[in-house]
Input
Amino acid sequence: MTPSLLPITAVYLILMNLAGFAAFGLDKGKAQKHRWRIPESTLLGLSLAGGWLGALLGMKAFHHKTRKAKFRIGVPMAAALWMGLLVLAIRAGLLF
Output
């Protein structure tokens, strides 16, 4: 029997979502002060790396990047990708 990857996956996703949320908050603060910004590719990359929920919550909480199509479309696409991966992992018996 293969050991469950659930604990590792859960910790990874929690950390990625905290990072995504924090990145959107930091970038919003920097934008308001006209300072160095976090690249959009990094923000989207965090979403694709599993931090999509934190990114989505950060977009809503900080009202940041909500008008940009690449974020309105890209973050939900990352969510769909991760939901699909999680379903596949569950069906394969990797998480439970």
In short: The longest helix spans residues 6-32. The two ends are 11 Å apart (CA to CA).
